[in-house]
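Q: What residues go here?
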């Protein structure tokens, strides 16, 4: 799956989220194995470090881009080199291309961040917590889409997931 391939529709209803700041999913406990795999995959991206967020809630972890990476869309990063972050519940804020964000929202994988329009970042979304490994596959693809959009690289999820051993 890549940004060129249509996203499958997410099963069930959209989860409840806060309407203001902080913007996050509510009343959800993530599956510990799925969350561990989310972290393993997210931090397997080249040049991405796991550091405390500088913009989100306590306990959230930033996906921090190395200074060595040249950015195609530096203007999409609000603080430092934090291009995304994972909330304690396993939901994430990322920035996708506006087209991919719209597709993710229509397929019920995401919703717009309340400040997206106000600050002029039309692809800034909340990705819902993956409930199982199949959903994680889609969420991870969207994380990669965000990474590729911000950096200008062309990382492919299937090659990246297969090239790393599970480390917990």
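A:
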């Amino acid at each position: 799956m890549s940004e060129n391939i249509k996203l499958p529709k997410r099963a069930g209803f959209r989860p409840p989220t806060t309407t203001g700041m902080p913007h996050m999913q509510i009343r959800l406990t993530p599956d510990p194995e799925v969350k561990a795999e989310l972290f393993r995959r997210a931090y397997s991206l080249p040049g991405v470090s796991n550091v405390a967020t500088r913009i989100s809630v306590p306990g959230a972890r930033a996906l921090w881009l190395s200074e060595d990476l040249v950015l195609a869309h530096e203007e999409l990063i609000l603080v430092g080199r934090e291009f995304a972050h994972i909330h304690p519940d396993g939901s994430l804020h990322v920035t996708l291309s506006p087209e991919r964000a719209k597709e993710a929202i229509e397929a019920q994988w995401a919703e717009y961040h309340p400040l997206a329009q106000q600050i002029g970042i039309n692809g800034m979304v909340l990705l819902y917590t993956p409930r199982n490994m199949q959903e994680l596959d889609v969420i991870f693809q969207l994380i990669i889409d965000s990474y590729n959009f911000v950096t200008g690289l062309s990382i492919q999820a299937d090659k990246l997931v297969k090239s790393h051993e599970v480390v917990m």
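A: Context that may help when evaluating the design: The CA atoms of residues 61 and 161 lie 20 Å apart. The domain at 32-162 is CATH 3.90.1150.30 (Aspartate Aminotransferase, domain 1).
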